[in-house]
Design a protein that fits this description.
Chains A, B: This is D-2-hydroxyglutarate dehydrogenase. Chains A, B: GO terms for molecular function: (R)-2-hydroxyglutarate dehydrogenase activity; FAD binding. The structure is a homodimer of 576-residue chains. Chain A folds into 4 domains: 96 residues, Uridine Diphospho-n-acetylenolpyruvylglucosamine Reductase, domain 2; 116 residues, Uridine Diphospho-n-acetylenolpyruvylglucosamine Reductase, domain 3 (2-Layer Sandwich); 193 residues, Alpha-Beta Plaits (2-Layer Sandwich); 37 residues, no CATH class. In chain A, the strands form 3 sheets. Chain A has an 8-stranded antiparallel β-sheet, with helices on both faces. Chain A is built from 18 helices and 17 strands. The radius of gyration of chain A is 23 Å and the shape is globular. Helix content of chain A is 35%, strand content 16%.
């Protein structure tokens, strides 16, 4: 690695290489069925990616993505080994959340005639009643939520989705649309006996325009497969998640997934050009435009981006993909205070501007945890202890120009005192070791013991105040660890405690939500509301807005069959 | 200017300067009232910007933006002088469109008690009944649509907007929300006697965060004033329109304005972080988030982006603004065929990637027209006639790097035969002269005589086929001119005829809409539907989608008082 020197005369020349690994070609797998075993191209060590936080799992365990048959079994073994304690806590949370929900008595129970109908339209093998397969589909990624569905359907076409929903609506059978089931808020599994509609069989690329970079594909395409397909075409997906080996594009759209490229390419509301979605009554909404500009009336596709499958089932997606750029650089830097981190962000936006692709931060508590809990992790800046660390990644089209630009920026930042030390990765191995620190924090936290996790958006200026206020509030009773996507104003606030304790929880909640609300933050930056936070919505949304949400839900899904008990507060959704 | 040389050894060194003029500071004018005369900082010649196409008027006439008193009078004088013939044609179009609409009999007529009520809440001077002032507010930018409203209201706060709407809803008084009244589809003026709510008095910046670049402001802020405000802060607006001297941010959001920076910064759906909007019943929806990530339920703000004031009145806006970058370069290039233009776009996206900020094209017919009709315009590439011309602009943070990068790209493109000739502007004057050609085309077209104008989005690959098909169809009867924002897939197709002729119109329509629809294009790329194209919506939107639009309109505005007769087809809107 290149050490950034304090003395101008010692400014080091760089002779590094682009270090970002390309995903291996998976084009031929795009048309594979979900019961074919597919090995992801993710490249990290042994930590199971489903334990890590969404967007925190960049280089994670090889994942078997047979989403219906045996997927996630390897992960679960590992999970059971290393984090049983955490699950006990999570289960307690779950019990407490589930206790508030009662099955909507207006929903019908599944009858043999229903099964026969579905077999008639989907064929025997796409109507799943096998207990083991249902157990997987009923259980969420974190083992936190578990439903009791007796039926999993695997439609292969939009028309089949339409037929399923039309029937379920007429019979008042509740349904859960399911993609890769990688959600973290209980949104993708049944709460009770809802019919699961898994989209994994709709996994074809429909079209790709190499001039405009516009990709049209079915909802069940796995994100990593799309990344690989585009890599061969010289393009990238505008979003990248740790869960990419399992998550499906329809699910990422339905949850408005954020991830690692948001600071550069913006949210899915900007990148999704069109959608096809099926309403509860079976009506197919063809909004599958492939245009950057289309001002012909209300842009209804946005209703389906981030509504977690509660307004309709996304069946196809049109997405603008950026061209792949060849030059990637990464710096690992130290700042002495949070104000310097903020100023550094401002300078990076201005001086790196068009090549800035990530701006992540961690505090010293997060660094200590990574160093103490993770095997093989070393501090790239070992000479002194620092209060904050920042990772700055650039992505551009010219290796030498970009590197010089980053070096000049870093040198200026050192001279002005914004950064107190720093290193620039010289190859992919060094870069991976830097990312391992940042991305290993969720794993380190899980290893450290019982954990209270919060995914918050807060205006950047105030973001770290919450960590300090929480630290002052909790004193010695628990350790407060803060890190996250500073470039997006997304804080991952974690409280690591010696044991699960209702007293500590009472100190944290509702304080953390109230604090976030007071500063006009969001109680869910990237994970959604799902079942977990449906009742907390008022911390982030005004009463009148939630009322309109409920009216739109009622309009589009009058029987409330689509993903019930999620997103909307139960007081409002039960009336719909 | 720097001529791009064919011979590698003769590759010219560049010593140019950044040429993009900064707007002069107007910070102090941000809090000015709309009846103060404000002179815009736009810097072109004598062509009135309200004659040019939206997004086509970059350097336009100095505009007096006293939007209530005497604004646009200078423009109109100029307009009357140079384009009377065109207005005759437009008026005929208007008559034909208006003939299809009947006043909704469920709307009340204005009564003296109503006036008294409004004076009570707004004060005497903000309730306008003066005929001259009403005449301006009743008439659209192009003199194409004219309403007969007897009342213009000037609210100063969200609460006042709420009171107005609550009252109008209870009285069934129809209203037209109005910003700068720069729309081109009859969306911003009354059709009959609707009450006009002009937002120009709500023109304050509420907050600006220099770390995140997030601006919060009232809906009536004039775009150019915001640009100037941000310029002082080291930021830019993510959109830039020719109408910036008059258009208001609330109007640009309500019409989802596109403009010149879309290819770089994307659409408003990606850049608008939050909105405050008032529903027809007076309910205020506070969705004024300032967060890049917020996944807490349906993102309802998107309903108000591009719905042309028919679902609610936007009162405040939160917008993500990019940092200002110092280096701007412009190349004027020739291509021999449309396929080369396409390939050049692909290469530019890949090789210029992060610094590409505009990719515009014009065909030889457009160039001939500019050369023949515009004073002082010269062909920068006079040695040979070429079939297509492309302007490529880059914007980045490092002058020398960016220029070298552009030069290298241009050299490669010459070597590979994608471009046959080209020049690189060396200073702002040369750059302005290049832009003058591209931006002068609407003016040249107006000068050439009767004109049929279409603003279409078409997949890039097929975009120019329409011009060729139209040319084959029309033969010698009219001249087909094509240009536009190729980087966005936005074609401005213009048919210049010797005289207005129903036979020619019948050759063009509905063919142009059918062709666009067949290729999954949009019949309105950036202008919206307004009154003009409300009944043409089915060319771009599926029946089921329009039906959901109508349901949402009915849900949010059950009496249909908000901007009636616009956006939705009259068959559906009259039933709501």
């Amino acid at each position: 690695m290149l050490r950034i020197m304090m003395n101008k005369n010692n400014r080091a020349a760089t002779h590094g290489h682009s270090w970002r690994q390309c995903s291996k070609p998976l084009l031929d797998l795009l048309s594979s069925r979900p019961d074919d075993p597919i090995i992801s191209s993710s490249n990290s060590g042994c930590y199971p990616n489903h334990l890590a936080e969404n967007g925190e799992q960049r280089r994670s365990l090889q994942t078997c993505v047979d989403c219906v048959g045996g997927y996630r079994e390897t992960l679960r073994t590992s999970m059971d080994r290393c984090s049983r304690q955490a699950f006990v806590m999570q289960y307690r949370n779950f019990v407490s959340a589930a206790a508030k929900v009662k099955r909507n008595p207006s929903f019908s129970a599944l009858m043999p005639d229903d099964i026969a109908y579905f077999k008639g339209i989907l064929g025997e093998k796409n109507v799943i009643q096998d207990e083991d397969r249902l157990d997987f589909a009923n259980t969420d990624w974190m083992h936190k939520y578990k439903g009791s569905s007796k039926l999993l359907l695997l439609p292969r076409t939009t028309e089949e989705v339409s037929q399923i929903l039309r029937y379920c609506n007429s019979r008042r059978l509740a349904v859960v649309p399911q993609g890769g089931n990688t959600g973290l808020v209980g949104g993708s599994v049944p709460v009770f006996d809802e019919v699961i509609i898994n989209m994994g069989s709709m996994n074809k690329v429909v079209a790709f325009d190499k001039v405009s970079g516009i990709l049209v594909c079915e909802a069940g395409c796995i994100l990593e497969n799309l990344i690989s397909f585009l890599d061969n075409q010289g393009f990238i997906m505008p979003l990248d998640l740790g869960a990419k080996g399992s998550c499906q594009i329809g699910g990422t759209v339905s949850t408005n997934a954020g991830g690692l490229r948001l600071v550069r390419y913006g949210s899915l509301h900007g990148n999704i050009l069109g959608l096809e979605a099926v309403l509860a009554n079976g009506d197919v909404l063809d909004m599958l435009g492939t245009l950057r500009k289309d001002n012909t009336g209300y842009d209804l596709k946005h209703l389906f981006i981030g509504s977690e499958g509660s307004l309709g089932v996304v069946t196809k997606v049109s997405i603008l993909t950026p061209p792949k750029l060849s030059s990637v650089n990464l710096a690992f830097l130290a700042c002495e205070d949070y104000l310097s981190c903020q100023k550094l962000l401002l300078e990076a936006k201005r001086k790196l501007g068009e090549i800035l692709s990530a701006f992540e931060f961690l505090d010293s508590q997060a660094m200590d945890l990574a160093l103490n809990q993770l095997d093989g992790v070393r501090n790239p800046l070992p000479s002194l202890e620092h209060n904050f660390y920042v990772l700055i990644e650039t992505t551009g089209s010219d290796e030498s120009y970009d590197k010089e630009k980053l070096e000049a920026f870093l040198f200026c930042s050192m001279e002005s005192g914004l950064i107190s030390d720093g290193v620039l990765a010289q190859d992919i191995y060094q870069a991976s070791s830097f990312w391992r620190i940042r991305e290993g924090i969720p794993e380190a936290l899980m290893r450290a013991g019982p954990l209270y996790k919060y995914d918050l958006s807060i205006p950047v200026e105030k973001l770290y105040d919450l960590a300090e206020d929480m630290r002052a509030r909790l004193g010695q009773s628990a350790k407060v660890v803060a890190y996250g996507h500073l470039g997006d104003g997304n804080l991952h606030l974690n409280i690591s405690a010696p044991k699960y304790n209702d007293m500590i929880l009472a100190q944290i909640e509702p304080f953390v939500y109230e604090w976030t609300s007071k500063h006009r933050g969001s109680i869910s930056a990237e994970h959604g509301l799902g079942l977990m936070k449906a009742n907390e919505i008022f911390y982030s949304k005004a009463q009148e807005v939630v009322q309109v949400m409920a009216s739109i839900k009622k309009l589009l899904d009058p029987n409330g069959i689509l993903n019930p008990y999620k997103v909307l507060p139960h007081s409002l959704s039960s009336s719909s």
